[in-house]
């Protein structure tokens, strides 16, 4: 294999030395998708499963997903001596160790233990097997009246060896991540020092409050949503709201940040006043110069003190973004768009479909007015959001275009060149190229 050629499957080779031309088969090949599940979602990567506030009490649980494997996020009992070091947050696979039944059916609730309905195997909240019927058999009598035991598990059956699949768990500022891998690096190392300050900015030292959910199924490859939020210049072209009202467009001061691996990214920008600017609005069909709001509370933006931080890239100075879009490969997007805050969870459903779960949140010290503001601004996002509905549609149209071409063809991601350098502007596709440079390393033999 040459340096210019990376083998990604039985019949597919990515022959371009750069990652600026993504082959269409990367989005449509079913066998490749299965390898993605194994190497990425079930491999040495950390995946988002939920927020700690979603399970506030002992026994509280919610169902979540890592790839196509359903898992249970649950709060367990913790001994007093361990409370300083143990969050009590557990993640176990929703699959009975006996006959493989997906035993938990409620999306959320509270339980003292988990019981499989098929054969009544019972598990502790931490996934340990607590008991099972007829483990020691059933006492009976033979025809001559001699006592005997019918059935029972073999003598070498050890209850400790038959619990649920337990995942490694890490909780960062109330965000819960899990991995199936014992060899994955620590979560802090996985996220990296370039991205961590931007997570700290939103979450560190704050108690979250849950505001609500949106869910949708999008008929496109899961990587397309990662791309969408690593694509900083499309909002000023696709989204009427962004280009018209100045929420995100190319004439704003912006910055692209990546981790050392190129898999995670932060798009950072500062809102301007919007309106006409020929350099970025001329010929843009989504720009509506005469568009006005019937209810201007949708853009009732109030600056929050935590927006301003010491600039990680320029020590000794400050930075005050109004927007940060954080992509944590492979499954999480964290959105701060002015006062609206949410996590977005990507759940693949095959090579051509994924579920997208939005969890809107605020902070415990928010005033009632700020909570209402966050909820109003959340109308820009979600399945029917004034902005996000556009993204779901173009992802579907992209997948349709890939599928109709067959095995040939590729996308073009060369705005700003073919390299993977970070930039201080948004007129670039460097974050997409960086993600695929990493993806190629993971997927290669």
Topology at a glance:
Blueprint: E1 6-7, E2 13-14, H1 25-28, H2 30-41, E3 47-51, E4 60-66, E5 69-75, E6 89-93, E7 108-110, E8 114-115, E9 122-123, E10 129-131, E11 138-141, E12 147-150, E13 168-172, E14 175-179, H3 187-191, H4 196-203, E15 208-218, H5 222-228, H6 235-238, H7 240-245, E16 254-258, E17 265-269, H8 278-281, E18 309-310, E19 318-319, E20 323-328, E21 332-337, E22 340-348, E23 354-363, H9 368-377, H10 388-405, H11 430-443
Antiparallel strand pairs: 1-2, 3-14, 4-5, 4-7, 5-6, 8-9, 9-10, 11-12, 13-14, 15-23, 16-17, 17-20, 18-19, 20-21, 21-22, 22-23
Features:
4-stranded antiparallel β-sheet; 25% strand; 445 residues; 23 strands; disordered N terminus; alpha+beta; globular; 7-stranded antiparallel β-sheet
Question: If strands are numbered along the chain, what order do they take across the biggest sheet?
Answer: 15-23-22-21-20-17-16
Q: How far apart lie the N and C ends?
A: 11 Å
Average pLDDT metric: 90
Tell me the number of strands. 23
DSSP summary: helix tally: 11
As residue ranges, the low-confidence spans are 1-5
Shape: globular
Q: Helix- and strand-based class? A: alpha+beta
Q: What is the C-alpha radius of gyration, as a whole number of Å?
A: 25 Å
The level of helicity is 10-25%
Largest sheet: 7 strands, antiparallel
């Amino acid at each position: 294999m040459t340096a210019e050629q990376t083998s990604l499957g039985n019949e597919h080779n990515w022959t371009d030395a750069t990652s600026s031309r993504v082959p269409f088969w990367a989005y449509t090949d079913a066998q490749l998708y299965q390898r993605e599940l194994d190497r990425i979602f079930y491999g040495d990567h950390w995946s988002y499963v939920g927020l700690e506030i979603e399970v506030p009490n002992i026994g509280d649980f919610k169902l979540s997903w890592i790839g196509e494997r359903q898992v249970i996020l649950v709060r367990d009992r913790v001994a007093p001596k361990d409370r300083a070091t143990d969050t009590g947050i557990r993640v176990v696979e929703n699959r009975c160790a006996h006959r493989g039944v997906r035993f938990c059916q409620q999306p959320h609730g509270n339980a003292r233990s988990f019981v499989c309905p098929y054969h009544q195997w019972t598990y502790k909240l931490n996934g340990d097997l607590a008991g099972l019927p007829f483990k020691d058999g059933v006492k009976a009598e033979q025809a001559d009246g001699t006592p005997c035991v019918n059935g029972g598990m073999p003598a070498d059956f050890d209850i400790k060896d038959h619990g649920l699949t337990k995942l490694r768990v890490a909780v960062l500022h109330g965000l819960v991540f899990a991995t199936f891998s014992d060899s994955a690096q620590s979560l802090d190392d996985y996220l990296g020092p370039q991205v961590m300050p931007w997570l700290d900015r939103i979450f560190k030292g704050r108690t979250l409050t849950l505001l609500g959910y949106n869910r949708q199924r999008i008929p496109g490859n899961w990587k397309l949503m990662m791309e969408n939020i690593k694509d900083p210049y499309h909002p000023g072209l696709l989204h009427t709201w962004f280009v018209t009202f100045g929420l995100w467009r190319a004439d704003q001061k912006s910055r692209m940040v990546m981790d050392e691996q190129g898999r995670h990214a932060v798009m950072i920008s500062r809102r301007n006043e919007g309106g006409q600017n020929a350099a970025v609005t001329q010929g843009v069909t989504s720009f509506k110069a005469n568009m006005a709001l019937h209810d201007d509370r949708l853009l009732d933006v109030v600056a929050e003190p935590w927006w301003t931080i010491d600039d990680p890239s320029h020590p000794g100075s400050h930075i005050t973004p109004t927007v940060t879009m954080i992509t944590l490969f492979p499954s999480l997007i964290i959105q701060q768009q002015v006062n609206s805050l949410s996590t977005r969870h990507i759940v693949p459903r095959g090579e051509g479909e994924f579920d997208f779960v939005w969890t809107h949140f605020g902070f415990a010290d928010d005033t009632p007015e700020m909570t209402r503001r966050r909820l109003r601004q959340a109308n820009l996002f979600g399945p029917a959001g004034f902005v996000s509905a556009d993204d779901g549609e173009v992802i579907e149209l992209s997948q349709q275009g890939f599928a109709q071409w067959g095995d040939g063809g590729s996308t073009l991601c060369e705005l700003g060149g073919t390299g993977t350098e970070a930039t201080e502007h948004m007129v670039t596709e460097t974050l997409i190229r960086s993600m695929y440079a990493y993806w190629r390393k993971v997927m290669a033999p």
